[in-house]
Amino acid sequence: MADDDKQEPTFLVADVGGTNTRVAMSAGRTILRDTIRRYANREHADLAPLLRTYVEEQGGSAPLGACVAVAGPVADGRAELTNLDWSIDSARLAQATGARDCAILNDLQAQGHALDHLDPNAIRPVIEAQPADPARDVGARLVIGVGTGFNAAPVHQFPDGRFVPPCEAGHASLPIRTEAELRLCSFVSTAHGFPAVEDVLSGRGLERVYRWLSSEAGSDEAHLAAEIMDRVESDPRAEAAIRQFIRILGTVTGNLALIHLPLGGVFLVGGVARAMGRHLGNMGFVEAFRDKGRFAGFMNNFPVSLVEDDYAALTGCAAHLYERRIL
Fold it and tell me: Transmembrane stretches, by residue range (predicted)?
């Protein structure tokens, strides 16, 4: 892990999800693919010992920098994971890795920093936008993550660097457009009251949609999210659950597009988004995205793409550290 003037700086980067943590080394902004390791979170008491284990497995030398992307809010250099009883701060990250330069990002911030550093073949168009005026600045971009949870982050490029402010979009109230969606929300309502976006738009959310459809049919049948995806062609209820999920995803994505005006594009990321990818074009996503009344035509300004790189957050962490180093 040595670093000198003739080599790219060596960084340790990690993507901490609700279920698994991916860790890798990078040479500058390039992830060293043979160093990627995946750890089951349930097998570790906290993030710091997991990272110490990784450093030891890589030979024990300290990287120049370390950056962790977490599925939860980050404030004052400290992160509390939303769907996991872990926390991490810059001091503990430095202690666990030996790195001199440490950063902690929200996972969607990391995805935003990854844009422009991904293989173009890993970005698949979902909605093409009308041609932009060449004289007009394309402005912001927006990343939307659908996985264990839901979140979003706008991406702004300035002459002195990239700014990706954190959000907690998954905890906004779920939008309601139909009587069926109102019944779904009543079914999903939690002890905290009206359901949030990620109570439906997440892996567990898809399971809730399926159980709701079962209850509407007088059944208690339930399946895991992966099973629902596998049953889409053999189980009409699975197809209906995915279709309902995708329509709500289209509505929420359209709402976020109007809020942030990402003329540079909307990028869907996350395991559930990738799993839904082949259905986005034929199960109502586009129609729901554009269904904005008198602003329906305006929605044609926003291209939407699916990011199919499972390690994009790692790339974003490396890009963030690299940019901090050169500015």
Answer: none
